[in-house]
Design brief:
Shape: globular
Helix content: 40-55%
Order of helices and strands: EHEHEEEEHEEEHEHHHHHHHHHHHHH
Largest sheet: 8 strands, antiparallel, barrel
Strand order of the largest sheet: 1-6-4-3-2-7-8-9
Protein name: CYTH domain-containing protein
Radius of gyration: 24 Å
Number of strands: 10
InterPro entries: CYTH-like_dom_sf (IPR033469), CYTH_domain (IPR023577), YgiF (IPR039013)
Distance between the termini: 56 Å
Number of helices: 17
Pfam families: CYTH
């Protein structure tokens, strides 16, 4: 049984919420509503006020749980608990309980059932829960039927409010009511041809915790650059890379404060790593969508790096900000991200897709294309794709060895320097010439040192 959140009913048993969350620009609302009216049946409109509960230090959030009371109308209230779930290419699956209430007060007794306690985080007492923040938004609802499948689509616009501070909400959610989850991807891709819709894993609750300064670290444990390529778990490694990509991309495109250099470079590195991993196994490479995401994404990285490097009111930053806004309004990039998410979901849910059985990212394998032309080894090693491959090396030695550490840290720093140099040179027309020269000289000197070190390491790989 699947959750149907806008119906007044006793849904106190555990359900599974299967949904895809998408973000869009507020000025696209009318176009999106029109696209939905053509395809789906418009439902009701509601004003929803929500209060989220947690411990003072956000212990529930750290365990990926959310507890809220929602007011729907004058006298209708509902208490909802969502616990740790999974994300497959951006399609979220979570455990969920919904209980109707007579008033807007937390009922801790509902959390004491054996079923709930089986998923409740250890060490958190219901007595320590308190209201932390609120969300208020207007919701428009549609039902889209396709064959035997039925999907509820809701468009939410409003605010997250915390102690006098607030941030806007503008998102679309597609939730499966019955049928095949694959239709969610098909519907999202159809809508994205008209309005840029960006995959978003950031829930309303997480936005509130971020505003409180209690946001949990979303980065996956066992980062692929730390553990090396694991062919037995390649689908999971691809999923971890994709989560990094889509969350970093949302921050780069939408968040007002300039992102950090680490985030911008990390986005580019994980994007290149995703395609590197996907192409290692022939069966994956054959079904991987033909997409044009790398070059536009590296250009976006350049614009974001410029925002972190220069004073915020300078002409170069204004130029970069304009470019970022233009990319955010391009349906093609959003469509590409959806296609990759759909492909990854199919890879993870298919029982017929074989697990990879071959291949390693070894130094000999990486150097093979330039073995016959050592004069061009430096240029070969410094290509962004090659640097990411060096960061994924696995020569059968302990990944914590000094050699692996030196190779990976050198390649990672060199990648960052190259991306920064590309960004600065791309925006040269809007830069002061002397400022441009000084920044390039500093980075070029370090780039040459790292390039020389990487060549030396490649000539004496681990025994």
């Amino acid at each position: 049984m699947l959750a149907q959140p806008d119906e007044r009913h006793d849904n106190s048993g555990m359900t599974y919420e299967i949904e895809l969350k998408l973000r869009f620009a507020p000025d696209k609302t009318a176009a999106l509503q029109q696209a939905l009216d053509v395809r789906a049946t418009r439902g009701g409109h509601s004003t929803l006020n929500n209060t989220y509960f947690d411990t003072e230090d956000g212990a529930l959030s750290r365990q990926a749980c959310a507890l809220r009371i929602r007011q729907k109308g004058e006298t209708a209230f509902e208490q909802t608990l969502k616990t740790l779930g999974s994300s497959q290419g951006g399609l979220a699956v979570r455990h969920e309980w919904n209980w109707p209430l007579d008033q807007g007060q937390l009922d801790a007794s509902l959390l004491a059932s054996d079923e709930v306690l089986g998923h409740w985080p250890d060490g958190i007492s219901a007595d320590s829960l308190m209201p932390l923040f609120n969300t208020h938004f207007e919701r428009q609802r549609w039902i889209w039927q396709l064959g035997q499948s039925e999907v509820e689509i809701v468009l939410d616009q409003g605010l997250v409010q915390v102690q006098g501070a607030e941030i806007p909400l503008c998102e679309l959610e597609l939730e499966l009511l019955q049928g095949d989850p694959a239709v969610i991807w098909w519907m999202a891709e159809a809508l994205c041809t008209e309005v840029p819709l960006w995959i978003s894993d950031i829930s309303k609750a997480e936005r509130g915790y971020r505003l409180l300064g209690l946001g949990r670290d979303w980065q996956q444990q066992g980062d692929v650059f730390e553990v090396g390529v694991d062919f037995a778990n390649l689908p999971d490694q691809l999923n971890n890379c994709f989560e990094w990509i889509k969350r970093a991309l949302e921050t780069l495109l939408w968040e007002a404060p300039p992102p950090t250099t680490q985030l911008a470079v990390g986005f580019a590195a994980h994007l290149l790593a995703f395609f590197t991993l996907a192409r290692l196994e022939p069966s994956y490479r054959q079904c991987l969508p033909t997409v044009t995401l790398v070059n536009p994404s590296l250009a976006l990285t350049s614009a974001c790096l410029v925002r972190t490097e220069f004073a915020q009111q300078s002409p170069v930053v204004q130029c970069a900000a304009t470019h970022i806004a233009e990319w955010r309004d391009q349906p093609m990039l959003a469509q590409t991200l959806l296609k990759l998410g759909h492909w990854l979901w199919q890879l993870q849910t298919s029982t017929s897709t074989p697990l990879p059985q071959q291949g390693k990212m070894t130094s000999n394998r990486l150097l093979a294309p330039c073995q016959g032309d050592p004069e061009h080894r430096e240029a070969w090693l410094e290509q962004p794709q090659r640097l990411v491959e060096w960061m994924l090396l696995d020569d059968g030695q302990a990944l914590a060895s000094r050699w692996h550490h030196d190779v990976r840290t050198s390649a990672a720093e060199l990648l960052g320097l190259q991306l920064e140099l590309t960004a600065i040179r791309h925006y040269t027309p809007t830069l002061n010439r002397e400022d441009w020269r000084q920044r390039c000289q500093q980075r070029d000197a370090r780039r040459l040192q790292l390039s020389s070190l990487l060549i030396q390491l490649s000539e004496r790989p681990p025994v």
